[in-house]
Each structure stands twice: as C-alpha cells, then as structure tokens.
Amino acid sequence: MLQNGRRIRTLCYAVQNLCLNSSGLLTRHQLIKLTQRSKKDDSSISSLFIPVPVKPTPDDINVGVELTGSLNKADLLKILNKFYQKKEIKLLLVENGLDNYLQHQAYVSFRRYCLEAQTLPVDLHVVISDILQGAGNVTDIFPYFLRHAKQMFPHLECMDDLKKISDLRTPANWYPQARAINRKIIFHAGPTNSGKTYHALERFITAKSGVYCGPLKLLANEVFHKTNSRGTPCDLVTGEERKYADPSGNASSHVSCTVEMTSVNTPYEVAIIDEIQMLKDPQRGWAWTRALLGLMAEEIHLCGEPGAVDLISQLCLTTNEDIEIRNYKRLTELHIEDSALGSLDNVLPGDCIVCFSKNDIYSVSRGIEASGKEVAVIYGGLPPGTKLAQAAKFNDPDNSCKILVATDAIGMGLNLSIRRIIFYSLIKPIMNEKGEKEMDTISVSAALQIAGRAGRYGTQWEQGYVTTFKPEDLKTLKTLLESPPEPITQAGLHPTAEQIELYAYHLPNSTLSNLMDIFVNLSTVDDSLYFMCNVEDFKFLADMIQHVPLPLRARYVFCCAPISKKMPFVCTMFLKFTRQYSKNEAITFDWLCRNIGWPLQPPKTIIDLVHLEAVFDVLDLYLWLSYRFMDLFNESHLVRDMQKELDVIIQQGVVQLTRLLRNSETGVSSGARAADEDEFALNRQKQSYLREPKSLIGRGRLTERLLAQGILTPNMLQELKKEWNKGDSDGDDDDDNEPKKMRRKRKIK
C-alpha cells in the first residue's frame, strides 16, 4: 500500500508540473507519456538481474545419505512442486524481494539443483527426508529455497544499498567544496549575435584566474587564442589536447576547456559556462549540470538562451544561491524573406544553404558548382583544421568562393560572414527519449540558433536574411522564428565511475553494460528538475569490449570515449586499442600505421573521403586515450603530426567534392582504400601470390574468398592478371623450342 501511495503521489505531482494544452486539459498522448515516465515496471527491472549459476559442491562423504538414506527423485519432485504451489510461500517470497519473474527463475534453478546434484547439503537432505517420511511440512523447505535464491540473485541482499547509491535526487550535495563558497551567478541571456558571450569574456580576461567551459573544441581553441592575444596567459584543455601558454609547461591561472574537461576541484575567480541551454542535451547534458553545480568559482557567468532561465533559477534554489539575469537583444537586424529560393541558380554571394544530411550537402554542392560558382563546405565530420580552412575561404572578401553549404555544425563555434541563411529542409533526425533516431521538424531553439548566424555583428553584412529552399517550408520557418524558445525543464545527469564501482562491488558477476542498465532503472531523480542522460552509446561500447579482460575503472574510461557507433572502422580500431591495452602492449606509431594503412592517399571518391574522416577520428581517439593511459598510448606527438598531414589530405578532397561525386558514379578506383590495402597487403603477399598456381588469377573459390576478406583487391587482381599474361607470353618464347604447329597439334589431341 505504501508503495502504491508513493506512485499515486508521484503521478499527481507530475500532473501538476506538466504543461497544459490550450483548453487546460491533458492530451491522451501526454497522459500516456506521463504514466510511462512515472511508473517503473518491476518485472522489467527484475529481468535486468542476470542469475548467477549455483553449482553443487560434491563431497567425498554423503553425510545426508548416511544419516537418513537416499532420496527418491520422483517423490522429491512432487514435494518441490507442492512447495512452490503454496500461496503463502509466494507471499513470503514477495516480502523478501522476489517478484513472480524472480520466483520462477529461482524455482527452476532450485529444482534442477535438487534433482541433479549427487550430494545435497546435509541440512537440506535431512529436511527433505523428514518431509518424505511425514515428519515435516513442505514449507520447511522455504529457508533453503531463499538461501538458493539469494545466491542466484546477489542483489536481494543489497537492494537497499543499491537504491541509496543510485539516489540522484540532490546532485547539488555531491560538490561540498562548491557549496562552501558563496558563489555569484550571472546569466547572460539572449539570442545568437547579441554580444552575451563577449561581455562574459571581458570579465574572464580581466580576472585574476578563470575557466571558460565551451561546447566545442573550436570554441575553446578560439577563446584560448583570444585570451593570450590580449596579454592574459591562458591554457587549453580538451579531451585530445593540452596547450600551455608558458613554454616550460607551467599551468596558467586561466584555462579554456571543453565542458567535459572542466575541473570541479580547482578554485577560480571567474568561470564561464557557454551555451548553458545544452544541459538539456540527451547525451552530453550531464557535463553542463556538473559544471553549474560543481565549479569552485566566486563568479559564474552563464551564457545561453532565455528558455533556460527558469530552470537555472530553480537549480540555484537547490544550491541556496542568488542569480542575476542580464538580457541582451540582437545587435543586427534579421529579416525573414517573403519568397523561398526555389532553385540553386538563385543563390547569391554571402548565401549559406543549411542541410541536415550529408547526401543533401553533396547534391547541393554539386548543383551549385555545376552553374560555375565555387562552394565552401562545412559539416560535423570534418576535422577542425578543414572547417577553419573552409570558413576562412568563405570569409575572405578577396576569394572567389562566395557560397557556403553547411550542416547545423555552423550553429556554434565558427565566425562566418553570412548574408543569408537558406534552410534546404526543416526536417532533421533527432534523438528521442529511448535513444532512437526519428525524423522531425527542427526545434524553435535550433531554428533561431542557425538563422541567427546571418548578418553577424562585425562582418561585412550589417543585416541578416533568412529563407527556405522549398516554398512549402517558408510558412513553417516563419512560425518557428516568431515563437519563443521552448522552455528547458530538466537538466541531465549521468552515473559516475565511483557509483558504478560501488554497484560492481555488490554485483561482482554483472557486466558493465548490465550494471549501467540496473543503475539507470533503479535510479531516483527529481523529475521536476533532472533527467538521466541516454547511456546507449556507453552500453554499446561496453558490450563490444566485454570479452576483453580489463579492470573495471579502465573499462569505464574506455566506454566514455567520444566515438560514433555508426562508424565501423572507428569501432574496429577502438576494439583493437582495448585488446592491446589489455595485453599491456604499447600502441606504438608503427602499430598504428599498420592498422590504419598509413601513409594515406588523396581521396578519389566520396567513400574515400568518408574513410579518411573515420581515420582522423581514430587518431582523435588515440589522443583522447593518450591523456588517460599515458604509459601505453605514449606517442601522441607523432599522432598529432599524422593528424596535420591527414587534415591537409581531407582539405584537398573537400575542395574537389564535385569530382569525387563524379568518380563515385563512374566507378573510379578507391584512392584511400588502395593505400590502406595495397600498401600493406600487396607488399607482404604479392610474392606468395605470384608463386600460386594460375587458378588464383581466375575467379575461383580461393580468389572470391580473398576478395571477400579484403586480402586481395580488384586492383591487385588486375595487376596480377597482367603479370601472369606477360609471364605466359615470355614462356612461349623462351621455354620451348618446339614449333608452334606442333604445339597446336598437341592441343588438338
């Protein structure tokens, strides 16, 4: 009853806090969603606990048999079934934490244990013997069954401890050092291009010490250079890079970092948390929440959308801190045009066409270049150096490139001289609450962020314009841009390594992915302020390396690696890194070269370019790991040089994007792949191929197998055919002095 009462109170509280529709009533969809969020299915939680096999311990002397005689298995089965069918037994089991699912699992195991064991524990053997002889009751089995169930499911002994560990209702209390400071919170709220970050940075640069926490490496890098150029020594800290203002490597009092790398143990005078609205992000929101609650700074300047003000104010109530809100307006005018672009022939200098897929990027770029106009291209998968090079080309008034084609990667992190933003589409893949991708119209926040890049203050365009490519999208765009940003209602949280280690102590037989599942399902958060960030990517990596023997803390760190599970090559290299680490073998420069196919060639097709981008991500992964496992990933300086070379190669490919698309359609051979396969496979195995029988050169089973495995490439096959044909002709001339007519006759026979 108590548990049901709690659920009803939770439901009522959630109803009070849920936004009502225009009629003041909840919609059916909202009610369903609310019920799903407020109620955790006990059976689904129980199914997360993987049973530990309970095996009998054979003894040389079967004391039970000596005391009471052997047991008849058929009679034993009847007693066990009778025991399990009793209602009072089921109620007792529920009181001890076993729901129907766990009861069934435990009974099947207990029955098998009793029937198949050569030797039962003496106490259990005697009790069953008494029951068979009428000197006991079947309910006497209960303590032995419960003992077996607790061996199968260790969580039954420690469920209260597990729930305490995953109680996340007061995350502000996780940071006692921050709570001990009387922090001043200043929220700079305003749209894109309103100068909010500029004012915060001015205070940061003039402070005695400070930290800037940004959402992207590019932004952290920009603040790093800007601060140093103003005469304030500032260090750079990202997941993959450390730069010191002092050449001798001494730490400066100012740091510019990505938000995940923020230190909550270092005191500062001033801290800036940029794009604070990102605490709503399903994957990364926890990092902004941690920075906001945990930074040890006298002044904390938050920069972001007005939609985050209410949530930040509520979070400040939990930390007993006051908040000062400074509102900003856009510095330049932004006009929504009355007509859509309609055709790529209508693009003008200073235009930026925003796409939400790589395919659209490719087709739009090709379409514009077909009309003789040069295009700069920026999307998320490009290396930072390539993005900056493309941005510089587009921004340069003396450069012939006047058109930009980009994804929403331009929404933050790059200073671009854009006159007009053109939305090629308003449909974008988004991540839902379950971590699944769905196609949906972009949010008001995203539309304002992207559109706001037009007519940026300080560029050659004093006014900004925005429109759509398709006429039917224009009305939707106007509605989005005229709406206030959606209010942000919850901030993200994520399990820490320490919490998962405590779980592993109580559940030593569970995998890391399983521990994370159990933690998320048992966790208790204040739904009015927080949500649990999506852990699907973490679990994906944990499952991938589960078979690799690693200490739990190292396994946790590997699974936090910032890689995309959609890139098979990067995932493969991630697995190879973990295997090398588990064998305590250094991941050397030579080893890396062999596995990525270095040196790489300029791309000839789009597939080549995508592969090179994946290789760059692998090098990024190496650098990320080099700061966490310095002993085995110890050649970061060489890898950084490789990245610089690869960045140049990728830039060459992006500049020739249209040619790559054309080559992809006409079937031109893969340049990057050839470097990957031919450089190593050909050099090591060419001689053995030449010594093989001539059947290798045809299309026999062996050839097909080698092609399928990637050991033999079509290029190599063609080359080998030529060499064999040449060898045959040489043999005809030199090996035999027989007349050709004789040879012909022999063939006829």
Automatic annotation (TrEMBL):
<dbReference type="Pfam" id="PF12513">
    <property type="entry name" value="SUV3_C"/>
</dbReference>
<keyword id="KW-0809">Transit peptide</keyword>
<dbReference type="InterPro" id="IPR001650">
    <property type="entry name" value="Helicase_C-like"/>
</dbReference>
<dbReference type="GO" id="GO:0000965">
    <property type="term" value="P:mitochondrial RNA 3'-end processing"/>
</dbReference>
<dbReference type="InterPro" id="IPR041082">
    <property type="entry name" value="Suv3_C_1"/>
</dbReference>
<dbReference type="GO" id="GO:0045025">
    <property type="term" value="C:mitochondrial degradosome"/>
</dbReference>
<dbReference type="InterPro" id="IPR044774">
    <property type="entry name" value="Suv3_DEXQc"/>
</dbReference>
<dbReference type="InterPro" id="IPR027417">
    <property type="entry name" value="P-loop_NTPase"/>
</dbReference>
<keyword id="KW-0347">Helicase</keyword>
<dbReference type="GO" id="GO:0003724">
    <property type="term" value="F:RNA helicase activity"/>
</dbReference>
<dbReference type="InterPro" id="IPR041453">
    <property type="entry name" value="Suv3_N"/>
</dbReference>
<dbReference type="GO" id="GO:0016787">
    <property type="term" value="F:hydrolase activity"/>
</dbReference>
<comment type="similarity">
    <text>Belongs to the helicase family.</text>
</comment>
<dbReference type="Pfam" id="PF18147">
    <property type="entry name" value="Suv3_C_1"/>
</dbReference>
<dbReference type="InterPro" id="IPR055206">
    <property type="entry name" value="DEXQc_SUV3"/>
</dbReference>
<feature type="region of interest" description="Disordered">
    <location>
        <begin position="722"/>
        <end position="749"/>
    </location>
</feature>
<feature type="domain" description="Helicase C-terminal">
    <location>
        <begin position="340"/>
        <end position="501"/>
    </location>
</feature>
<protein>
    <recommendedName>
        <fullName>ATP-dependent RNA helicase SUV3 homolog, mitochondrial</fullName>
        <ecNumber>3.6.4.13</ecNumber>
    </recommendedName>
</protein>
<keyword id="KW-0067">ATP-binding</keyword>
<keyword id="KW-0378">Hydrolase</keyword>
<dbReference type="Pfam" id="PF00271">
    <property type="entry name" value="Helicase_C"/>
</dbReference>
<dbReference type="Pfam" id="PF22527">
    <property type="entry name" value="DEXQc_Suv3"/>
</dbReference>
<keyword id="KW-0547">Nucleotide-binding</keyword>
<dbReference type="InterPro" id="IPR050699">
    <property type="entry name" value="RNA-DNA_Helicase"/>
</dbReference>
<dbReference type="GO" id="GO:0005524">
    <property type="term" value="F:ATP binding"/>
</dbReference>
<dbReference type="InterPro" id="IPR022192">
    <property type="entry name" value="SUV3_C"/>
</dbReference>
<dbReference type="Pfam" id="PF18114">
    <property type="entry name" value="Suv3_N"/>
</dbReference>
<comment type="function">
    <text>Major helicase player in mitochondrial RNA metabolism and maintenance. Likely component of the mitochondrial degradosome (mtEXO) complex, that degrades 3' overhang double-stranded RNA with a 3'-to-5' directionality in an ATP-dependent manner. ATPase and ATP-dependent multisubstrate helicase, able to unwind double-stranded (ds) DNA and RNA, and RNA/DNA heteroduplexes in the 5'-to-3' direction. Regulates mRNA stability and is required for the correct processing and maturation of mitochondrial transcripts.</text>
</comment>
<keyword id="KW-0496">Mitochondrion</keyword>
